[in-house]
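Quick one, T. Sequence first:
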Amino acid sequence: MSNSAEPVLVLASASPRRRDLLAREGVRFEVIPADIPEEHKPGESPEDLVCRLAFEKAAAVAKRLGDRPARWVLGSDTIVVIDDDVLGKPRDTAEAERLLGRLTGRTHAVITGYAFVDSSAPEEPSRGRVAQQTSQVTMRDASAEEIAAYVATGEPMDKAGAYAVQGEGARFVTRVEGSEDNVIGLPVSEVLAVWTTLQGGGAP
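Structure tokens:
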């Protein structure tokens, strides 16, 4: 039997933004990052990509945990999409400036996939839940100098699309349609509603 003080949820992500979102809601959880390649398969839609990666992350950690005791593992993946192109994290400051140059003055999609995997049955998606949520983000026009000044803060360098809506990147954002938490990295209200349902189902 598990200790009552043991975290109920395992977050398969090293993202500080996802940790902050769960902590804000008072969720008790443990962080065990997954280490899997985040590759975009040919012909894979953005929605399928984030759902697959979220499940693979959760399943990888669930396999390591096993069923002593069984735990729910939450995996997640967030991407930025514009003109049907998936924008990842910038490799350097030049790419960060280029990515932001594509986004400013326009509206883009932020898609987050999330997956709950039962550590006692990590190969069975039907035991948990895999889903995704999309938000639309509109940015104002910005000069090359403004973009360079923002990139110089260092904030964009570990963010998909090279900006943080919850940080200094908010200076460019004029509107968010849908969940802002989703843009940060996890649609936390939806995720917690699903987790509550899964716990009510008695598994794991």
